[in-house]
Amino acid sequence: MRFNYINIFVTFLSLFSINLYSQNLEDLKRLLDNNNLGTARFTSMGGAFMSLGGDLSSISHNPASSSVFNHANVSFSLNYSAKKNELVYGESVFDNTSSDFDINQFGVVFVLKEANTEKNWSQISFAFNYNTNNNYKNNFFVNTKNSNQHIGDYFLYYAQGLELNNLVLLENETIRDLYQYLGQTNNLGFGAQQAFLGYQGYIINPISSDESNTTYVSNAKIGGPLDNEYYFTSSGFNKKYTYNISSRYKDNIYFGLNINHYKINYDEIRDFYESGYDFDSNLQKVRFRNKLVSYGKGTSLQFGIIGKINNQIRFGLSYHSPTWYKFFDETSQFLISDHFNNGQSFRDTIDPDTVNVFPEYKITTPSKVGFGISLVGNNGLLSIEYNSSKISSSIFKDQFADSFLQLNNNIKREFKSLNNFKLGGELRLLPISLRAGYIIKSTYSKIYDNSSNILSLGFGLNFSSSLLDFSAQFGKVRDVNNIFSYGILDNIRSKNSLFNLIATYTVKL
Question: Does residue 1 lie within any of the structural domains?
Answer without folding.
Answer: no
